[in-house]
Amino acid sequence: MVTKEKAIQKSSPIKQKFSPIKIDALLKRLDLVKHLAESDYWITTEELGALLDFDASLLEWLNQQEPLYSFSWRNFIVTQQGYQNHARMWAIADQPQKPRQVSIAPERKQPLIQPVSNSEAGRIAIVPEPLKLKSEKDEGEVFPSSYFVLENFLSPQELTRFLQYTQSQAAKFVPATISTQDVDYRRTKVLHDFPEFSQLLINRMMAIAPQVVSRLGIQNFTPSSIEAQLTMNNDGNYYKIHNDNGSSDTANRVWTFVYYFHREPKAFTGGELLLYDSKIENNFYVAAKSYKTIQPKNNSVAVFLSRCLHEVLPVSCPSKQFLDSRFAVTGWVRN
Predict the structure, then answer these.
(1) CB within 8 A of 311, min separation 6: which ones?
(2) In the chain, which stretches have pLDDT less than 70?
(3) CA distances from 250 to 178, 227, 246, 331 (A)
(4) Model-level pTM?
(5) CATH number for region 136-334
(6) % of the chain beyond a pLDDT of 90
(7) Which residue ranges make up each domain of the chain?
């Protein structure tokens, strides 16, 4: 004889599937993931699988993905950061409010980056929107400049090939210029065309775009174009304080990345990037007295908002040899 209680249980599969015990376990898991996102701790693929309850086949597939591959899990972004002691390490971050929809699938899909069309070429989108002041006293408020640094951005093999390629292009580097034509404002040499490695770096940056959006606290968007420039800073080179979207032809740059590399042992000193905090004067962002110092660490990339004022301190390179220089690829992502 079927009791009334058993009949209710039989007719209520939802009640059986989503029991209070399972909901409680899910909440605990979400709390753990949230804690990892806030702490910036990295975990291995196996630890990630245990945390998110992935099966063995999915773990095997994840272990085949390139560094900086990202996917979403609920309202979090999970990004492969590289290797430590031969183990793949992953970072977890909160999803932005309007996240890019990335799901785990057998085939990885690269973001599509389209050039600006002729009809859009003359349009300038100001990013970010001008900050509206509540009162005159707000002009003294300091806005910290957000940034983050990722290390081991390229594999050792890719880094070696990039250095060899850079050396082969030494004769093609030309003195850099700026829009104001001030000859004493920037001293460095640049290479504008290096398609094989510029595309490699752009692809890697786009793979972590959800992480960039989350960490810099900006709205998600589809890039209209991405530029990249290879710079060589040798003895006495520098770049005085500036931002990357302060002119009409650069106003739609949203975020900047700088990839540092050099041969070992390091043969130069200096060349640090000073990233200034901001304050507002007459409705314009200007540099505050406070700043962060970013070291040009080999095979690392720094990411920050293009509106932030920054400068490159002078480089000292006693040998003055080309391959002893401080090399960097600077890229700008436009909206």
Answers:
(1) 238, 239, 240, 241, 242, 273, 274, 276
(2) 1-19, 66-68, 83-86, 95-140, 179-183
(3) 12, 11, 6, 12
(4) 0.61
(5) 2.60.120.620
(6) 41
(7) 14-94, 136-334
